[in-house]
Write a structure and sequence with these properties.
A hairpin with a 5-residue loop joins strand 5 and strand 6 (144-149). This protein has helices at 2-6, 9-25, 37-42, 60-70, 76-84, 108-114, 160-168, 178-189, 253-264, 290-302, and strands at residues 50-55, 86-94, 97-104, 121-124, 135-138, 144-149, 152-156, 194-198, 219-228, 238-247, 272-275, 280-289. By secondary structure, it is α+β, with helices and mostly antiparallel strands. Helices cover 33% and strands 27% of the residues. The longest helix is centred in the first third of the chain and has 17 residues, at 9-25. It starts with a helix and ends with a helix.
Amino acid sequence: MRHLLKHNRASFLVLFALLLIVLLFFGCATTPPAQQDSFLFSLLPRDSQFYLRFPVQDNMDLANSLVTSFAPNLSEKDKQKLLDRIGTIYGSILNDEIYAASTGSFPKFALGFVLKEKNGWQKVRSKNIPITEKYYVAMESGLQLAFPNSSVALAANDVVSMLQSYQNYESSHVQESSASLFFLQQEQENPSCISFYLIDAGNLLPSLKGSSFKLSFPFGDGYGYLTPDLRFSHGGVAYQLEAFLSLTDSRALRPAIAALKIASRAIDVPFQVEAYGSDVIRIYDMSFTKEMLCQLVLKILEE
């Protein structure tokens, strides 16, 4: 996972800088309109290896800490202006590339004023999308941004496919998959949690710090969520991770659980593990403070 994320560090920083510019020029923000997960999910590549849903308004304390980590000199007032513009961020990883779709308040006239050639951006039109649509390319990093309306922002190294998905959304159905059904369930049952889905989790799980082995087991898909954990908050906000990893061969269930129990004693953040059916492993009681999560994100992006 580290390799996948560090590849796009420059794109993250460019996008963050853009948002800061927008808020400084146009400080008045409105509450972002709600959007269904099925809508955002449909804009991401269907064969992505990793999906993430981050509801900013419901996790404002953590979002504020993440912004502080990237821009420690930004005032509390300006941080709040920035975060008030963003609703839910939905992202995925496909072949080492990050795709992101966000709901929020993105006035087109303001963005057109900022995203000019003198500021390092090039406006592009493509024959593969309607003539009324355009997108912007950061000439230094290659990051592409598109705003199909004032409530949706798209970011990727290739946003054309996402714009095509946006145009086709009204006349097509979202492809049903285990990932899309999972996020639909989360939207209905626990819309405020930070949730993720892994396709073929065995290819993305890193070797664990302090262990002398890798988790070489036949893992299938995995999913999980971060929810506020008041037991460890000490006056702030902490998060508890609960994750489920499926196995393509149920015979590996017991040895995989044994290996994870050993690994839980070798890392800085211990956890509990148990069988969840005949071929699924449940990981739980793994708690992170918001500071720990911020440090983890920064470490991943900097390596």
